[in-house]
Amino acid sequence: MIRTSQEAAARLTRRGRWSLPEVVFWAAAAASVVLLPDRYLLLNEIVVIGLFALSLDLILGYAGIVSLGHAAFFGLGAYVAGLLAKHGVADPFLGLGLAAALAAALGLATSFFVLRGTDLTKLMVTLGFALVLAEIANQAAWLTGGADGLQGVVMGPVLGFFEFDIFGRTAYVYSLAVTFALFVVARRIVVSPFGLSLKAIRDNPLRARAVGIPVNRRLVAVYTLSAAYAGVAGALLAQTTQFVSLDVLAFHRSADVLLVLVIGGVGYLYGGLVGAVLFKVLQDNLAAITPQYWHFWIGVLLVILVLVGRDRVAAAPQAVWGRLTGRRSAAPLRLDPKPVEDA
């Protein structure tokens, strides 16, 4: 049991230290800029989906808020950044900032409706908001381009020097840098007292309220933050592809990002990033082999993960190798920070 605030602070500090697997993960991401020059477009899409999944993990994995309409914030961010660029405001970071602000405002406004009722209620309310926003975008073709998409999006150079090139190098480096910066912020938040209070609310909201945690305010805050992150992800997609369509608000966006989290793991931030890598690599390769049936194999993987368990699936190759070599398999490396242990 933690006896003093100094001990608690020391334990949180230790918990927030970067582990070797985390350093290796981000070093590999940085190295991909040099090692995979012909895959920039795919890598950029992976990074955008990873940031989008991270935004959902903030509410699902840490606060227990289920959502089937997270594409509302993603799509809003995409349209805000696209409209700004189309009408002459071509600075990428200004577009990111305004997209995050408006997505956060939408998240704050809708949070009071979303956070009421059971999980099923939350699913339906979030889905409803996303469908309403998608239909508004469809009807307001004079503004969004409707089914034809928002065209004429031209982005200015990043920091005034780095032009967006046709190969996607600038786009990928830009998206990776923004995602890493936001990840560092999110990581600091989840290992803070605020993040621990979210986990307490997720595990037992009644007990959390009984010990003095302002449950509603905490949930509103993290939902607003998650919406801002999703808005930035949408803005990155619009800026790096220089095109926005109704697809950014479609239901499959919310479903796919939920699937990404299921594949990568919920509740440790890296789940969204790892899941995005696995999902897009599988999609890219399976679509090349069976263009019409790649969804089938993704579904098979999802069933295996749910029925067998992600840890067992991940440990299977290591166990087979241990049997072949006669060595005992070591504990698998984990990217998530170590939990706070009781004294």
Automatic annotation (TrEMBL):
Transmembrane segments: 20-36, 48-81, 93-115, 171-198, 219-238, 258-281, 293-309
Domain of life of the source: Bacteria
Name of the molecule in the record: Branched-chain amino acid ABC transporter permease
Protein localization: Cell membrane
PANTHER family (alphabetical): ABC TRANSPORTER ATP-BINDING PROTEIN (PTHR30482:SF17), HIGH-AFFINITY BRANCHED-CHAIN AMINO ACID TRANSPORT SYSTEM PERMEASE (PTHR30482)
Claim: Transmembrane is one of the keywords in the record: yes
Main location: membrane
Membrane protein topology class: Multi-pass membrane protein
Any Gene Ontology CC annotation: plasma membrane
GO molecular function: branched-chain amino acid transmembrane transporter activity
UniProt KW keywords: Cell membrane, Membrane, Transmembrane, Transmembrane helix
Keyword Transmembrane: yes
